[in-house]
Amino acid sequence: MAKFTFNMPDIGEGIAEAEIVQWHKKVGDTVREDEEFVDMMTDKATVPMESPVDGKILEIAGAEGDMVSIGSMLVVIEVEGDVPEDVPEEAPAPAPAPKAEAVEERIEVETSDASDADDALAADPEPEPLPAPTPAPEPAPHAKVLATPAVRKRAKELGVDLAQVKPAEDGRIRHGDLDQFLSYNSGYGAAAKTREDEAKKVIGMRRRIAENMAASKRNIPHFSYVEECDVTDLEVLRAQLNASRGDKPKLTILPLLITAICKTLPDFPMINARYDDEAGVVTRHGAVHMGMAAQTDAGLMVPVIKNAHARNLWQLASEISRLAEAARTGTAKSDEMQGGTLTVTSLGPLGGVATTPVINRPEVAIIGPNRIIERPMYVTGSDGVERIEKRKLMNISISCDHRVVDGWDAASFVQALKKLLETPALILVD
Question: Is-above-0.85 flag for pTM?
Answer without folding.
Answer: no
